[in-house]
Amino acid sequence: MIGKPLKSDPSDVRAKNIRTAFQLVAYAGAISRAELGRLMGLSRMAVSDLVNEMMENHLLRQAGLDRRQGRGKRSLMVTVDTDHWRVASVDMTQRFVIRGALTDLMGRIVDRVETPLGDDAQSHLQMVDELLGKLLAMTSHPILGLGVAVPGVIDAEGTVVRSVSLGWTEIPLQTHLKQERHIPTVVCNDVNMGLLGECTFGKGSRNSLFVRIGRGVGAGVCLNGTIIDGSGYSAGEIGHVVVDPNGPQCVCGKRGCLEMMVNVPRLRERIESHPDKRDDILGRGGNMLGDALAMSVSLLDLSDISVDGPADIIGPVFLQALRDELEAKTNVDYRRQPVIHRCEQGDDLVLRGQAVEVIRSFVDSIHSRRESDGGMAEDETITKTGSLHGKRMAGTSKDATDAAKYADSIERNQTA
User: Fold this and answer.
1) Could you tell me which of 401, 396, 364 has the C-alpha nearest to residue 30?
2) Is the pTM of the predicted complex or chain greater than 0.90?
3) What is the mean pLDDT of residues 275-293?
């Protein structure tokens, strides 16, 4: 049965335009109103109203005249306003420390703090609260939102369903932080935030696989610009794929799981015991990862694979072995092999990726808050979630027309 088409809510259209405009400006670095209107399909008056509102809300600012040569009046450019709002991000992936950072609206870190992480799982929540208190006390700027990246399975409501490394089960972290801080908050899987960071600031594409190797092994998947969570929020949990049935027993009960065979401490221990076999050990690790990924690469037709890990492990030998294994098991004449590279964004990747998630979740809600409350004080935070992502939030000098390729934002998605 064909139903009647639904009417669009004007406020929803406005919020979508804010998200789209923000990501296009962020990607382009600076853009004229005329070019922005052309890319968005808006009239001159409509784009002028939109830009003026975003400037009033300190999302955009004037950036001077364009630098083009030749005849004709030069255009006044706009760019992202990085001087007003701040985003608070927390990374809980390290074994002995919780790291926090304040970023601007381009995901650039402007201040940071960290606190030791104890072994008592019951105290971890208090430590997060204390770190956020220190972080928020470091700035007088209004806070757009908070984001916390947690290793483990995180559901759509920001509840930590299970985090083995933190000893958490069914912890409603997002709800807790919202109630404690009264600031819009998102809690996300750490590997997905690494993927988002790599897609935003690094070499990741719209069809990308991100693999993080540390104490364990995890992955994140981006397909057609959408980060996949899965029906049970555990997409990318590849650590317990068996790659050697005769290998050591894993905590899950199986033998030879991927993260038992190629975790960083194990590889380092083996290299230390057999330094003359370093290349063989790393090559074997790359082969095992390739074996575990082969089916996914064939199934998903990925463009690239980013591998994140310490340089002494994730280097040329490991990556070439991974490349060789994948080519041997998936190569066909009608499909290009994915580009494989080491992630080069450093230790702040998850913090910055989490900041991007906060920005794209809440950047349009200033408008929504004004619509519902009849105006808002300049120092108030915002309260409604949305979504946004621009491929290069750090800004580039590429022509704004390239930004249209990325106008469909990467959105976190719970697949049925």
Assistant:
1) 396
2) no
3) 96
Task: Give every CB contact of residue 322 below 8 A, 6+ residues apart in sequence.
Answer: 286, 287, 289, 290, 293, 305, 307, 340
Instruction: Give the tokens for residue 358.
Output: 């906060």
> Per DSSP, which regions of 283-381 are E strands?
304-308, 339-342
Look at residue 393 and tell me whether its pLDDT is greater than 80. Answer: no
144 and 363 in contact (C-beta within 8 Å)?
yes
Distance between start and end Cα atoms, the chain: 22
Residue 355 CA to residue 145 CA, distance in Å, equals 9
Q: Per mean pLDDT, which range of 9-13, 186-190, 241-245, 287-291 is the poorest?
A: 9-13
The residues facing 189 across adjacent strands are 150
Q: Convert the pLDDT of each residue in 172-185 to its tens digit.
A: 999 999 999 999 99
Average of per-residue pLDDT values in the chain = 85
Number of H helices, E strands in the chain: 13, 17
